[in-house]
Amino acid sequence: MKNIFLVVILFFYYSINSQTFDIINPEENVGLSNWDIVNDDVMGGISKSYLSLDEEKNLIFNGYLSLENNGGFASSRLYFNRETLTGVKAFKIKFMGDGNTYKLRLRQSDRRASYSSNFKSIKNQWVEVDIPVEEFEPTWRGYSYSDYPSMDMEKISSLGLQISDKQEGEFNLKIKYIKAVY
After folding, report:
1. How crowded is residue 66: how many other Cβ atoms within 10 Å of its Cβ?
2. DSSP character for 17?
3. Residues of the domain holding 102
4. pLDDT reading at 61 higher than 70
5. Nearest to 133 by CA among 106, 113, 110, 102
6. Distance, CA of 40 to CA of 67 (rounded, Å)
7. Least confident residue range of 32-46, 89-103, 113-127, 130-144
8. pLDDT: is 156 or 18 the higher one?
9. Is residue 10 included in any domain, yes or no?
10. How many domains does the chain have?
11. Which among 22, 30, 38, 26 has a CA at the least distance from the CA of 160?
Protein backbone atom coordinates (compact mmCIF):
# COMPACT_ATOMS: atom_id res chain seq x y z
CA MET A 1 0.00 0.00 0.00
CA LYS A 2 2.85 2.34 0.87
CA ASN A 3 4.44 1.78 -2.57
CA ILE A 4 1.18 2.45 -4.40
CA PHE A 5 0.77 5.70 -2.47
CA LEU A 6 4.33 6.75 -3.41
CA VAL A 7 3.70 5.96 -7.11
CA VAL A 8 0.50 8.01 -7.08
CA ILE A 9 2.28 10.96 -5.45
CA LEU A 10 5.18 10.77 -7.94
CA PHE A 11 2.77 10.55 -10.89
CA PHE A 12 0.81 13.53 -9.59
CA TYR A 13 4.01 15.53 -9.00
CA TYR A 14 5.35 14.67 -12.47
CA SER A 15 2.02 15.55 -14.13
CA ILE A 16 1.82 18.94 -12.46
CA ASN A 17 5.49 19.84 -12.84
CA SER A 18 6.03 18.76 -16.43
CA GLN A 19 4.25 20.54 -19.20
CA THR A 20 4.58 19.89 -22.89
CA PHE A 21 3.94 21.73 -26.10
CA ASP A 22 3.79 20.37 -29.62
CA ILE A 23 6.70 21.12 -31.91
CA ILE A 24 5.41 18.70 -34.54
CA ASN A 25 1.90 17.30 -34.48
CA PRO A 26 0.47 16.79 -37.99
CA GLU A 27 -2.95 15.78 -36.65
CA GLU A 28 -3.22 19.32 -35.24
CA ASN A 29 -1.44 20.97 -38.22
CA VAL A 30 1.50 21.94 -35.99
CA GLY A 31 5.06 22.03 -37.32
CA LEU A 32 4.25 21.49 -40.98
CA SER A 33 5.83 24.62 -42.46
CA ASN A 34 9.35 26.15 -42.45
CA TRP A 35 11.13 22.88 -43.32
CA ASP A 36 14.25 22.49 -45.45
CA ILE A 37 15.90 19.36 -46.79
CA VAL A 38 19.68 19.25 -46.29
CA ASN A 39 21.38 16.19 -47.78
CA ASP A 40 24.95 15.23 -48.55
CA ASP A 41 24.66 16.79 -52.02
CA VAL A 42 25.99 19.96 -50.37
CA MET A 43 29.36 18.16 -50.44
CA GLY A 44 29.02 16.00 -53.56
CA GLY A 45 26.91 13.11 -52.25
CA ILE A 46 23.78 11.75 -53.93
CA SER A 47 21.49 10.86 -51.00
CA LYS A 48 17.85 11.94 -51.29
CA SER A 49 15.24 12.65 -48.64
CA TYR A 50 11.67 13.85 -48.66
CA LEU A 51 9.03 15.07 -46.22
CA SER A 52 5.35 14.35 -46.69
CA LEU A 53 2.18 13.44 -44.82
CA ASP A 54 0.57 10.02 -45.03
CA GLU A 55 -3.18 9.31 -44.98
CA GLU A 56 -3.13 9.05 -41.13
CA LYS A 57 -1.54 12.52 -40.89
CA ASN A 58 1.91 11.32 -39.81
CA LEU A 59 4.97 13.26 -40.93
CA ILE A 60 7.04 11.00 -43.20
CA PHE A 61 10.81 11.45 -43.50
CA ASN A 62 12.00 9.02 -46.17
CA GLY A 63 14.43 8.57 -49.02
CA TYR A 64 17.68 6.83 -49.93
CA LEU A 65 20.99 7.15 -48.10
CA SER A 66 23.99 6.70 -50.40
CA LEU A 67 27.66 6.45 -49.46
CA GLU A 68 28.80 7.29 -53.01
CA ASN A 69 30.89 10.41 -53.69
CA ASN A 70 31.82 10.71 -49.99
CA GLY A 71 28.14 11.03 -49.08
CA GLY A 72 26.38 9.56 -46.12
CA PHE A 73 23.64 11.72 -44.64
CA ALA A 74 20.11 12.86 -45.33
CA SER A 75 18.32 15.36 -43.13
CA SER A 76 15.47 17.79 -42.72
CA ARG A 77 15.26 20.92 -40.59
CA LEU A 78 12.33 22.75 -39.05
CA TYR A 79 13.12 26.43 -38.41
CA PHE A 80 11.46 28.45 -35.67
CA ASN A 81 12.01 31.59 -33.64
CA ARG A 82 14.84 31.66 -31.17
CA GLU A 83 13.67 31.38 -27.57
CA THR A 84 10.95 28.91 -28.61
CA LEU A 85 12.69 26.20 -26.58
CA THR A 86 13.65 28.30 -23.56
CA GLY A 87 13.24 26.16 -20.44
CA VAL A 88 12.81 22.85 -22.28
CA LYS A 89 14.23 19.87 -20.37
CA ALA A 90 13.49 17.01 -22.80
CA PHE A 91 11.80 15.98 -26.04
CA LYS A 92 9.11 13.32 -26.35
CA ILE A 93 8.92 11.63 -29.76
CA LYS A 94 6.40 9.08 -31.00
CA PHE A 95 7.56 7.39 -34.20
CA MET A 96 7.47 4.24 -36.33
CA GLY A 97 10.53 3.32 -38.34
CA ASP A 98 12.35 0.72 -40.32
CA GLY A 99 14.90 -0.50 -37.77
CA ASN A 100 17.42 2.28 -38.52
CA THR A 101 18.90 4.68 -36.00
CA TYR A 102 18.01 8.35 -36.50
CA LYS A 103 19.21 11.56 -34.94
CA LEU A 104 17.20 14.38 -33.44
CA ARG A 105 19.31 17.47 -34.04
CA LEU A 106 19.17 20.97 -32.61
CA ARG A 107 21.01 23.90 -34.17
CA GLN A 108 22.01 27.04 -32.40
CA SER A 109 22.07 30.07 -34.72
CA ASP A 110 25.49 31.29 -33.57
CA ARG A 111 27.36 27.94 -33.68
CA ARG A 112 28.85 25.83 -36.46
CA ALA A 113 28.24 22.50 -34.72
CA SER A 114 24.79 21.13 -34.01
CA TYR A 115 23.69 19.07 -31.01
CA SER A 116 22.26 15.63 -31.64
CA SER A 117 20.92 12.57 -29.90
CA ASN A 118 20.26 9.17 -31.47
CA PHE A 119 16.99 7.26 -31.28
CA LYS A 120 16.54 3.71 -32.58
CA SER A 121 13.46 2.66 -34.48
CA ILE A 122 11.92 -0.81 -34.39
CA LYS A 123 10.67 -1.98 -37.75
CA ASN A 124 6.92 -1.35 -38.12
CA GLN A 125 6.33 -0.62 -34.42
CA TRP A 126 5.26 2.62 -32.79
CA VAL A 127 7.76 3.72 -30.16
CA GLU A 128 7.70 6.68 -27.79
CA VAL A 129 10.95 7.94 -26.29
CA ASP A 130 11.97 10.80 -24.04
CA ILE A 131 15.31 12.41 -24.83
CA PRO A 132 16.65 14.67 -22.05
CA VAL A 133 18.47 17.80 -23.20
CA GLU A 134 21.60 16.51 -21.41
CA GLU A 135 21.86 13.64 -23.92
CA PHE A 136 22.47 15.97 -26.89
CA GLU A 137 26.11 16.03 -27.95
CA PRO A 138 27.86 18.61 -30.14
CA THR A 139 28.75 17.28 -33.61
CA TRP A 140 29.98 18.74 -36.86
CA ARG A 141 30.33 16.81 -40.12
CA GLY A 142 30.02 13.53 -38.27
CA TYR A 143 32.60 14.26 -35.58
CA SER A 144 31.87 14.69 -31.87
CA TYR A 145 33.37 17.54 -29.87
CA SER A 146 33.67 16.91 -26.14
CA ASP A 147 35.17 20.34 -25.41
CA TYR A 148 32.55 22.32 -27.35
CA PRO A 149 30.40 24.86 -25.44
CA SER A 150 27.15 23.66 -23.91
CA MET A 151 23.92 24.12 -25.79
CA ASP A 152 21.92 27.26 -24.99
CA MET A 153 18.23 26.39 -25.40
CA GLU A 154 17.33 30.09 -25.76
CA LYS A 155 19.38 30.24 -28.97
CA ILE A 156 18.12 27.09 -30.70
CA SER A 157 16.72 28.06 -34.10
CA SER A 158 16.01 24.67 -35.72
CA LEU A 159 15.17 21.08 -34.97
CA GLY A 160 16.04 18.36 -37.43
CA LEU A 161 15.79 14.70 -38.29
CA GLN A 162 18.81 12.94 -39.76
CA ILE A 163 19.95 9.52 -40.87
CA SER A 164 23.69 8.87 -41.27
CA ASP A 165 26.33 6.55 -39.78
CA LYS A 166 26.77 4.39 -42.93
CA GLN A 167 23.15 3.11 -42.91
CA GLU A 168 23.06 2.89 -46.71
CA GLY A 169 19.77 2.14 -48.43
CA GLU A 170 16.14 3.17 -48.33
CA PHE A 171 14.80 4.64 -45.10
CA ASN A 172 11.34 5.50 -43.83
CA LEU A 173 10.44 7.20 -40.55
CA LYS A 174 6.91 8.18 -39.49
CA ILE A 175 6.55 10.87 -36.84
CA LYS A 176 3.28 11.04 -34.89
CA TYR A 177 4.57 13.94 -32.77
CA ILE A 178 7.55 15.65 -31.21
CA LYS A 179 6.80 17.46 -27.98
CA ALA A 180 8.97 19.75 -25.89
CA VAL A 181 8.85 18.89 -22.19
CA TYR A 182 9.38 21.55 -19.49
Report:
1. 19
2. H
3. 19-181
4. yes
5. 106
6. 9
7. 130-144
8. 156
9. no
10. 1
11. 38
